[in-house]
Write a structure and sequence with these properties.
It contains four helices and nine strands, in the order αααββββββββαβ. With 199 residues, it is α+β, with helices and mostly antiparallel strands. The protein folds into three domains: 3-41, no CATH class; 64-97 and 151-192, ANL, C-terminal domain (GMP Synthetase, Chain A, domain 3), CATH 3.30.300.30; 101-147, no CATH class. The N and C termini lie far apart (94 Å). It comes from Mahella australiensis (strain DSM 15567 / CIP 107919 / 50-1 BON).
Amino acid sequence: MDIFSKAKEYYSRIKNIKNIEIWLTVLIMAVVISLAVSEFSKPPADAGLPNDTENDMPSATISPDDGEALETKLADILSKVDGVGSVSVMITFESEGEKVPATDVQRSTKTTEEKDNQGGDRTIIEETDDSKHVILNQQGASQPMIIKELAPKIRGVIVVAEGAEDVAVQADVSHAVQTVLDVPAHKVTVFAMKKQNKD
């Protein structure tokens, strides 16, 4: 039995059912179809998450405390690029990042309906929001529960490289920094390193 004959058979059965049952059947079918479509359109659970084993370079979610380690690691990898030579890197941050505390929000709504002597109706709706930070007591110290830490934004990057006299090398270094730190080109400046006098 092919799909079309099954559909015809199902349709003929639906024609014999009362209106309420038809709507109920259509509703159930719509829910099942929407669930199936939404399940197929979801990306895999691990899609978009970086694999730590694939990329040793840290992303722009580095904290300022680790800024020096990032500079060192970036300088190390850039110095391995053909033609770049010795490299120094400086990264500046706009802020120290932000910690987002958990909040307990309690909302209440109060509805009052009044009727006056002339037959008029009036409805008064009062909404109240009360939010408080969730506080944890650990070892006698109270501190807010942090649910998310936002990394600081990178203000700018300066790279000084031996091989940056070559425009192609300068472009490669700039592009590498933009890629690793996810910063736009106008925040990256590459300079040629001063030549050491050998007397």
